[in-house]
Amino acid sequence: MSESLPQRWSQATVYPDMWADPDDDPRTSDGGTPDGELATLDDFLTNYRLTLRMKCEGLEPEQLARRSVPPSTLSLLGLVRHLAEVERDWRNWITDGDPEPPLYGGRGGDFEVRGDAEEVERAFADLDREQAATDAVLAAHTDLGERLGKDQIAVRELLVHRIEEYARHCGHADLLRECIDGRVGQ
After folding, report:
1. Bridge partners for 31 per DSSP
2. Which residue stretches belong to region Disordered (predicted)?
3. Higher confidence at residue 74 or residue 33?
4. What integer pLDDT is reported at residue 147 of this predicted model?
5. Which site from 10, 55, 102, 178 is most exposed, i.e. has the minimal number of CB atoms within 10 Å?
């Protein structure tokens, strides 16, 4: 590899192994932990969604589109597009109607990125829209044991699966970001 590797760094000053100092971290709340299972699941999902966005902050479109290790197509921008796609897919699981079509074409299309500013803006708008749409559908179903859709998936299972998906991809985002500019943190 002819490129030099970026120097590892953190923006945090209080705890150098963190992404941001606690006072600057939007995931930190002074209100303590939520009460109840649904509120706890929603809190975890919200925090992982914020983490993904934090890992993408401050990067140029080309950096967001930079692939990890060939032949992998994994990139931060690809992760954003992928999570928009899976939000739509999860909604398709729990509806009785016809499924909505994929956002980015066939299998793997979410990771086929160019890395221009328009594409980045559109990807984050897609993610916002798809998250809001899935959240709106699930807001009508507060019984975590309720089963939805043709396959009768429990609301709890869908929420836990969403958390798992975001958590796994936030781990990927940690490594991708470190490869791009050396920034590390929780």
Report:
1. none
2. 16-37
3. 74
4. 96
5. 102
Dist CA 12 CA 185 (whole Å)? 8
What global pTM score does this model have?
A: 0.90
Domains of the chain, start order: 38-50+60-181 (1.20.120.450)
| Between 104 and 4, residue with greater pLDDT | 104
The pair of three-digit structure tokens given for residue 101, joined into one six-digit string: 């079509």
- Residue 24: what residue type? D
Cα 11 from chain centroid (whole Å) = 21
Cα 71 from Cα 81, distance rounded (Å): 19
User: Which of 30 and 148 is assigned the larger pLDDT?
Assistant: 148
Residues in the chain: 186
Instruction: Please identify which residue in the block is written with the tokens 């980015």.
Output: 104
